[in-house]
Amino acid sequence: MWKRTMSGVLGIALGLLVAFLFFADVNHKEQASSADNKSKAEKVYVPYGELDDYYLFASGGHSGQLFVYGVPSMRKIRTVPVFTPDPATGYGFDKETKKMLDGYTWGDFHHPAISETKGDYDGEFLFANDVGNNRIAAVDLSTFHTVDIMKLPNMGGPHAGVFVTENTEYIAMPTRFSRPLGGEYESLDNYKEKYKGVVSMVQFDRKAKDFDLAYQIALPPWSYDLSDAGKKESHDWLVMTTYNTEFATTNMEINASQNDRDYIVMINWKKLEKEVEKGNYNDFEGQKLIDPRDVKGAIYAIPVAKSPHGVDFTPDGKRFIASGKLAPMMTVFSFEKAMKAIENDNFDDEKFGIKTLPYEEVMEREVDPPGALGPLHTQFDDRGNAFNTMFISSEVVKWNIDSGEVIDRQPSYFSPGHATAAGGDTVNPDGNWLIAGNKLAKDNFLSVGPSHPESMDLYDISGEKMEHIMAVPTDPEPHYSQMIKADKINPIKVYEKDESRENAVWNNDDAHIERDGNEVHIYGTAVRSKFFFDASSDRPDAVTVNEGDHVFFHMTNIDLDQDITHGFGILDYNLNMEMQPGQTNTLEFVADKAGTFPIYCTNFCSALHQEMNGYLLVEPAK
Fold it and tell me: Nearest-5° angle of CA 496, CA 499, CA 500?
């Protein structure tokens, strides 16, 4: 009895001890986890009155917009409309932006590129590509406004753009889909002979804030996925990954993956530039078109694992790294070895008229982390390391460029596409933060129905090991992004008062209306909390026009206080625009509906915002 009792007591004691140790361990782990989370929270906490260290400019995919975040807080700061109308700001409704959009109502924006000087972000402009409609756009980073959009001829979806050369001499825009020049009808039976891949070499005038298509490069009808421009010693070169070197036209997921190898295409844009300057190009419907296969030393191909995605120059410009999404490895190529092979006429053969460099002699190493699947894109820190997103295995892998040694692996949540390091595309990466843009979020956030939000992961990469800090939801659809130090961006607070600005009125007493036949111009002001359309009238905030008149409202926001934006909406006319402090904007339309139409300020501006309204009176046609 005693033995049983003692045995029971010992059993209970042992059980209590195990339970104590278990719960102590759980409590310890909970405390450790709590402390860990607190540490992470402190890293991203930006208290009121302080500002983030970085801007993150993220593409909005098929939304056609640019999303701006602060890092490390990951707070969304702004949506900048680029390729798609935006009723919140009136983008696509006012005269200038409506003209820029040219009737398009959507865009597919994949790859932002900040303008560069000496291979580093200079923070002046950001360029954007529209895969869906063959367009390129420029965003002025002093105003965060899109200032120019250009439609590109002969293109088949510039997915591989935009990537700028070291001093923004050119913005390279390679095509994704091959098609006949001019987009003319041609049977797919003639694909190999009649279809072309095209690279548009675009220049941007920073002072005039507009684009010019310098020349276009005609290439074999492959698909060009991503590209990058060289740095320092490789400055004169572009590299592009290709797929569909099989010339497939249907069932692409099968037929475009038959070959064991695809190619990296190397193009010497400096040689092509000189030939174009000499007039050695073909004129196709007014476009300067050059085939680099006709220019000695202008184009080469390097075999690479099939269906590669990203190709990225290292910060020193001495290597470029390709990611093979179907062959789960990263391949490091030496620019010096490639140049040596070219100098020695060391070629394997030709592929569609392009000399091919020997893989084994140009390649430095293959990096194949065990179990890592679906490498897509490479970024860099300031300590000789590379970071790759792994789409299928949902992780980020850190490895040393010189040795290929895998240093660390951290999960992402989930299926990351592109990675973005602070300054990661420049000659001077910062080496502290990295972001993975994920295609899936699953159950990470509150449910919003069957379409889950996409997400971004933030990693601290300042130490030997990466630290996953947090995952945040984002608007659809994150592709690529770039991260720049905040002090390199210098936004204006208000537009300068310019007495000579066209259509501007700077005094309420000068507001007036001019009529020329059926064309009516209103030169008005917006000021808290009133519109002035005609100072000479006893109803200065009312405008009367005739049905059928061509009407122009030229409105100047003469409030020059920071953050006082006025909106301008006309009921039942589907019209809205905004005027930021000191800005003049124009709304142009035909008064094709007779009636009485209230006008009101759509952007909350003052305590008497409700009272800021007027009338458009449209007299019926007689």
Answer: 110
